[in-house]
Design brief:
alpha/beta, five-stranded parallel sheet, about 10% strand
C-alpha cells in the first residue's frame, strides 16, 4: 500500500482556507481523512453564520467586521474546505470522528463585539499578528521536521505546551483506529490525513498519531506553499 501523507496545519491560520485549497490541488489525494466530525462541522458553520448575523446588525466598522470575520472563518476551516474539495472532485472524504468543538459561551460574542466597538480589541491588528505567528510556527516546523533529534528536543523544551495540546493522547488512539479502518476500506489508495501540526510530530513517548502510524512510513507536509514544495520534492 502507498504511504499515507500527513498534512500538518495550524487551526487558526488566517490564510488557512486558500492554503489548504492549494495543498489539496498540489497533492491530489485519493482519500482524505480530516479531524473532527460532521457534527463539529455543522455546529461550526451555524456559529459562523450567527457571528455574521451579529455583525450585520452591529454598528462596527466594515473593515473591523471584515477582519473579525476572517479570524472567525479561520477556525475549523480545514473541515469545510477539504470536504467541499473532495465532493467537487469525487474523492472519498471522512472525518476522524475524534472530537467535538466547544463553542463560545452565550454572551461571550456580545462581549467581544463591545470590546471591538470601544477600541479595546482591534481585529485588523489581531489578524496581522496571527498571520505572523502562524508563519513563524510553520517555519519552525520546517526546521525541526528535517532533523528527528532536533524535533524531539524541541518537544522536550516545550513539554508544558505540548502536553496541554495533546492532553492524555486518547485522541491519538481514536484517530489511529479510524485511520486503519479507512485504510482497510480503500486498499492501495494514498490517504491524506489533515491534522493540527502537534499530531504530526515525533513525540519522545511515541504517542502522537504520527508515531502510531510510523510503521507505514507516513510522509509529512506543511500547509504553507513555500514549505509544501520542499516536502513534495523529498517524497
Amino acid at each position: 500500500m502507498l504511504e499515507p501523507i500527513m498534512l500538518g496545519i495550524n487551526h487558526l491560520d488566517p490564510h488557512g482556507p486558500e492554503r489548504i485549497k492549494h495543498t489539496l490541488e498540489r497533492i491530489q489525494p485519493e482519500v482524505v481523512l480530516a479531524e473532527g466530525s460532521e457534527i463539529t462541522l455543522i455546529n461550526g458553520q451555524r456559529y459562523t453564520e450567527h457571528v455574521r448575523e451579529k455583525l450585520r446588525s452591529s454598528d462596527i466598522s466594515r473593515s473591523a467586521a471584515s477582519a473579525f470575520m476572517q479570524l472567525q472563518d479561520a477556525e475549523g476551516y480545514e473541515q469545510e474546505v477539504s470536504k467541499e474539495y473532495c465532493e467537487r472532485n469525487g474523492i472519498p472524504f471522512y472525518f476522524f470522528e475524534d472530537n467535538q468543538i466547544t463553542l463560545p459561551a452565550q454572551g461571550q460574542l456580545d462581549q467581544v463585539l463591545r470590546a471591538i466597538k470601544s477600541g479595546l480589541v482591534n481585529p485588523q491588528k489581531l489578524l496581522e499578528e496571527n498571520s505572523i505567528i502562524v508563519d513563524q510556527v510553520y517555519w519552525a516546523l520546517s526546521l525541526i521536521q528535517a532533523d528527528p533529534e532536533m524535533e524531539k528536543e524541541w518537544i522536550r523544551r516545550n513539554q508544558e505546551v505540548f502536553s496541554k495540546e495533546m492532553k492524555d493522547f486518547k485522541r491519538e488512539e481514536i484517530m489511529a483506529r479510524r485511520f486503519h479502518e479507512i485504510r482497510s476500506a480503500h486498499p492501495g489508495k494514498r490517504i491524506l490525513t489533515i491534522n493540527g501540526f502537534y499530531h504530526t510530530l515525533i513525540d519522545p513517548t511515541e504517542n502522537t498519531l504520527y508515531c502510531k502510524l510510523r510503521s507505514l512510513n507516513p510522509k509529512r507536509v506543511i500547509n504553507h506553499p513555500e514549505y509544501l514544495d520542499f516536502n513534495l520534492k523529498n517524497f
